Amino acid sequence: MPKRLTGSAGTGKKIMQNQNLFNYTYNGSEKLSENKTLYKFDWSFDNYQSGYISIELLPDGEISQFSLMGCNNNQREFVSTLGAYNDPSLYNIFRMMLQYQNIKFI
């Protein structure tokens, strides 16, 4: 059984190692500015943890370091928001999610 997500560096790696336990739903996009778009998802891991993911694409299609993964407040082990800026392993998760939705990125 995989360890629960802790909201620390390496969370994306834990998810990639246990992809069969990671589920998400695409909730659409929001134009932040003329050149920036935010893609919204809900996620769950091992039917124990769940939350939201907000992936910001920059004008050139690059995933912003301010893309976020948050957990619902009723789950104690991972209650804060985790950003790509402090956990680079999240980029792999974000790329996978965008690719499955046929959203262009670099």
How many helices? The count is 2
> What would the principal axes of the Cα set say about the shape?
globular
Domain unit count:
1
Topology, number of strands: 5
- Let me know the largest β-sheet: 5 strands, antiparallel
Question: In angstroms, what is the radius of gyration?
Answer: 13 Å
Question: Helix content range of the residues, please?
Answer: 10-25%
List SSEs in N-to-C order.
HEEEEEH
Low-confidence stretches: none
Secondary-structure-based class equals alpha+beta
**Kindly state the mean pLDDT as a whole number?**
86
Physical arrangement of strands within the biggest beta sheet? 1-2-3-4-5
Strand content range: 25-35%
Question: Ends: how far apart?
Answer: 33 Å
What would a concise description of this structure say?
This protein has 106 residues and is α+β, with helices and mostly antiparallel strands.
Architecture overview:
This protein is of the alpha+beta class and 106 residues long. The chain has one domain (11-101). 17% of the residues lie in helices and 32% in strands. The protein is built from two helices and five strands, in the order H-E-E-E-E-E-H. The chain has a five-stranded antiparallel β-sheet with strand order 1-2-3-4-5, covered by helices on one side. Helix 1 (11-17) crosses helix 2 (90-100). The longest helix has 11 residues, at 90-100.
Topology at a glance:
Elements: H1 11-17, E1 22-31, E2 37-45, E3 49-57, E4 68-71, E5 82-83, H2 90-100
Antiparallel strand pairs: 1-2, 2-3, 3-4, 4-5
Helix pairs in contact: 1-2
Keywords, separated by commas or semicolons:
alpha+beta; five-stranded antiparallel sheet; globular; 106 residues; 17% helix; single chain; 2 helices
